[in-house]
Amino acid sequence: MNELSLELFWKPYLAGACFSLCLPLLGLYLRLRREYGAALAYGQIGALGAVGALALGLPTLLGGLMTSLAAASGKHWLSRRLPESGLFPLLFLLGWSGTLLLAANLPAVEHLGQALFEGQLYFVSRELLYGALTACLLGAVLLRRWGRYLLLAELYPAHFLARGQSVWPVQVGFDLLAAAALALAVMCLGVMGAFALVFAPPWLAFILAPDWRLARRVAPALAFFAYTLAFVLALYGDQPFGPVLTLALTGITLVLLVFSALMRRTKIFSRNENPL
Amino acid sequence: MNKLLVAEQLVVGWDAPVTRPVSFHLERGEILALTGPNGAGKSTLLAALAGQGRIFSGTLFRAAGARLALQTQGLPPVAGLPLSGAELLALTGASAQGLPPWLAACLPLRLDRLSGGQRQYLSLWSVLASPAELVFLDEPGNNLDRAGRAHLQGALRARANAGAAILLVSHDPELLPHCDRHLMLEPIS
């Protein structure tokens, strides 16, 4: 592998592949908690932080991470003062308007603002690749450990109190993990590309998977396939990556949903025709 | 010591007291039924014993190391969730041994594809059969059909015989005769 192919092909591909495996797993638990809107909120707030950091002459990666983590840390404090359903849309709108206004008024950050909307996968830095690898590995390890607690907290919230255990460290840890992964992913795939990875594959897995174990496999597998397809299509078609990834994910999801509905209908018809 | 729970002159509630002072104890291997009219504070007492409600006065002793399992009224929110019956039991560490055959066959299926009664019994089982010495059940017979209620009576006795102490809230006239003792709660007013 020469240096050129590493820079032009493998580095962006690996960074995006990490997010395509990690974000759908996070998306499963965000959907479980009815919080998948958090993906848009953390992502857009991260974008605002990155643009703001560039405007101040600070590292964009650090700016995006810090603002997204601050939003996740303040979630519980804010949600006590705002109705829960309004928190994530509000954060998203704040992030979106702030990012656009900064990009419109500061020529130095206009390019970054545009890249965060479109996804700048092919210009991924080495630091972002390391960040993606870390998020992917950390996400896999922590979600394996925390998965049972997150499920129990949703299904049997009384369980922890009855046992005299605290579940908040796991819940806050998950919020921070999701916020950090999304802030990094936005800088690689764009806001909508990252959101599509959190939303579409878990949605499909929730509908089609027969159990949680398979849902944890179906969602990343589907996302990785759609990501690889989008990578090739965007590269050869010279298209912005974020929209191509979003289109691939939503397209594949819709095709699979229609196919599964048709299969179910065929089964019902055949059962009706031959009741024995 | 066989006493796993001792309450003396206990008054519980949420923002304000909702029970009269109540005293009782619960021993290993016994089933105690909490009865009384609606509004007497039976569910609140159960919640307070499990650490959820507030204890206003009185004393509560729980044997050191006694693990507690609490089943509340209402089902876990599983609509649209790809979670199988076997996975639900694994979450609470409940054993599938002793499940009625008509429910054991449903374990590989998603919970949201089961009937309301099957889901109710499975969620009850996930608490009843979980590793705990103190088992608190709030209206466990709700929404169960005749077969479910009949199986529940045997399952409660088997769990108690295995060493657990069971405290249950119930109005079910079929279930109450299978309890060892009854404690009647009277409303405050």
Reconstruct the topology from this structure:
The complex is a heterodimer of chains A (276) and B (189).
Chain A: H1 3-32, H2 37-55, H3 60-73, H4 75-81, H5 84-105, H6 107-118, H7 126-155, H8 158-162, H9 168-189, H10 191-208, H11 212-237, H12 241-273
Chain B: E1 3-13, E2 22-27, E3 31-35, H1 42-49, E4 54-62, E5 68-71, H2 85-92, H3 101-104, H4 116-128, E6 134-138, H5 146-161, E7 165-169, E8 181-184
Parallel strand pairs in B: 3-7, 3-8, 5-6, 6-7
Antiparallel strand pairs in B: 1-2, 1-4
Structure description:
The complex is a heterodimer of chains A (276) and B (189). Helix content of chain A is 86%, strand content 0%. With 276 residues, chain A is mostly helical. Chain A has one domain (3-196): ABC transporter involved in vitamin B12 uptake, BtuC (Orthogonal Bundle). The longest helix of chain A has 33 residues, at 241-273. Chain A is globular. Chain B has a domain at 3-74 and 131-184: Rossmann fold (3-Layer(aba) Sandwich), CATH 3.40.50.300. In chain B, 26% of the residues lie in helices and 26% in strands. Chain B is built from five helices and eight strands. A five-stranded parallel sheet of chain B has the order 5-6-7-3-8, with helices on both faces. Chain B has a three-stranded antiparallel sheet with strand order 2-1-4, with helices on one face. The longest helix of chain B has 16 residues, at 146-161. The A-B interface holds A 32, 148, 151-152, 154-156, 158-159, 161-164, 205-215 and B 47, 50-52, 67-70, 72, 76-78, 80-84, 86-88, 91-92, 108-110, 126-127, 136.
Brief write-up:
The complex is a heterodimer of chains A (276) and B (189). Chain A has 276 residues and is mainly alpha-helical.
Report the average pLDDT across residues of chain B. 91
**What is the topology, as strand order, of the major beta sheet of chain B?**
5-6-7-3-8
Q: What is the radius of gyration of chain B? A: 16 Å
CATH fold-type name of chain A: ABC transporter involved in vitamin B12 uptake, BtuC
Uncertain parts of chain A: 272-276
Task: Report the count of strand segments of chain A.
Answer: 0
Gross morphology of chain A is: globular
In total, how many beta strands of chain B?
8
Determine the strand fraction of chain A and express it as a percent band.
under 5%
Estimated helix fraction of chain B:
25-40%
CATH architecture assignment of the domain at 3-74 and 131-184 in chain B: 3-Layer(aba) Sandwich
How many helices of chain A? The count is: 12
The main sheet of chain A comes to: none
